[in-house]
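SUBJECT: A protein chain and its fold
Encoding: whole-number codes for local backbone shapes
Chain under study, with its fold:
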Amino acid sequence: MVNDKKEKSEKKINNYTAKQIQVLTGLEPVRKRPAMFIGGTGIEGLHHLIWEVVDNSIDEAMAGYAKNIVVELLPKNQVKVTDDGRGIPVEKHSQTKKSALETVMTMLHAGGKFGGEGYKVSGGLHGVGVSVVNALSEWMRVEVKREGKVYAQEYKRGKPAAGVKAVGKSAEEQTGTAVIFSPDQEIFPEIKFDYDKILSHLRQQAYLTKGIKIAVLDKRISDKNFPSHSFYFEGGIRTYVRYLNRNKKLVNHNIFSMEKFGEDVSIEAALQYNDSFKENVYSFANTIYTVDGGTHLSGFRSALTRAINDYARSQSYLKEKEENLTADDVKEGLTAVISVKLKNPQFEGQTKAKLGNVEARTVVASALYEALKDFFDTHPQDAKEIIGKSMLSAKARLAAKAAKESVIRKGILEGLALPGKLADCSERDPEKSELYIVEGDSAGGSAKQGRDRKFQAILPLRGKILNVERARLDKMIANNEIKALIIALGTGIGEQFDIKNLRYGRIVIMTDADVDGAHIRTLLLTLFYRHFGELITNGNIYIAQPPLYRISYGKNFRYVYSDEERNSVVKEFSKGMKAKTPEEAEKSVSIQRYKGLGEMNPAQLWETTMDPANRVMKKVALADAAEADKIFEILMGSEVEPRKRFIQTHAKAVKNLDI
């Protein structure tokens, strides 16, 4: 028996030979593991293809060669990006013995960004951007204008269909590159470009690259009267900060901005405070949005905190015995943009989420501190307002800390007791359990009776929770409904938030399908977005989709979730009723409208909304932080006029509003 096992083991070893070692050449690694290069094959990854091509054009603009970029959405899922830069070189490359254009388009780590004088600064650090797009496209065509000629080459799934050829003539002074591509359906499960998402991203890029014009044209339906937008901002990031604060009440009316251009690191920064309780800070490196920040953002924060404290001391706003303001104190209400351009940027990962250059922190901290000192000296009223805002934040922080410690102490004294209204589940593995946040005692009762007690917990809320958009942490914790939710989640809140302590892998908001239900859902989403944002980015928050109607005829019945589906099912049932007119047939169909979850008995609520085998749920995702921030500010903020305009603009799109 032992010898038999040994023989099998030796066979396994002998089967593992050089033949089993797979070598991926050219662009094969990209098609094999697309997520390594574009972050995933969902909607974000799909749009990342456009960003990569546009980044090359912006690199030309930053180098001083391009002034115009045009992005066109075309029929058949095609995208065209055109710039008036120098045009990709087409002559034979000395190493590859192929055209430089073909080399750039078909080889990883090939481009003008690894040395030499091609680019002083570029966003496409790894040089894989456009070749990755080529690899993940079913078809691509590149057209280059150089030296009075138009050159072109086509590719299929990253491989050249033919060589680079001169296909026409152009004016001697005309140069530029046009890239047309069609994403591969074998790679992307859904190919649907979001025009608004593209506008938001390219508007941001136009702010970051002063003097460049970016046009976006949506020609997918018609080449006449198509939607189009054009962005050009001479004021750069200063204008960007003004745009971000457009619907907010300002603290300092003069925007602080600074620029410093160095050999290895150039810095641009702008900031302005508003009267909200949150910060809105965007950091960029070589025009790439560093969503996870990095060394440049660390330098920005330390300089801001130090400059505010030093000025507050010098003007006796902070007394001798008072403690310095913290980084958390000075970020309340802050809207800021920090953009650095580096010769040799070091990003973490191909998606460039975080900047790692150590020197960026020192250079940013030093330059920003000196610029802020000058700003405070020349704008004393603005400085006074900013410091007053920060000192008020410090007082609220200390009050919130005391209130929070009271909550925590209470939990410890009661053995970390969960809220009495919480009907917990028996499962202790967060990955296998879920919490339903339910509107009202009636719906809570149905949910408790209908649920699967093993993995589903129910937390009923009484009435509408506090609108946290205009409330500080101490006031939030004093609210019983929010306090119960915080304790039930287990993560803590504020600086003590830790997602590792989350007690449920899925948190499901389940409210009535009416105006009040929508309002409660919005209040809860505001709470999660402002204070539990990581739960959204981590994919823990869901919205239940209870049915709107139960339609029955005879022994047949169907639950439906929209008015369109209701009409379709009614017609379907009516077809089986012979010798009746369509009107008579429809009257014979029984339609029950569910205005509240409590109108369903426990079995119906389980069957339609809570049973994993049948239910429909929406996962809450964050595609655009700036747009989300704007919407929450409009809907839940204190300014009435922006909300009024929003309602007037979108009122016609609302169907069958229940009042």
Summary: The first strand starts at residue 68 and ends at 74. The longest helix spans residues 380-413. Residues 43 and 190 are 7 Å apart (CA to CA).
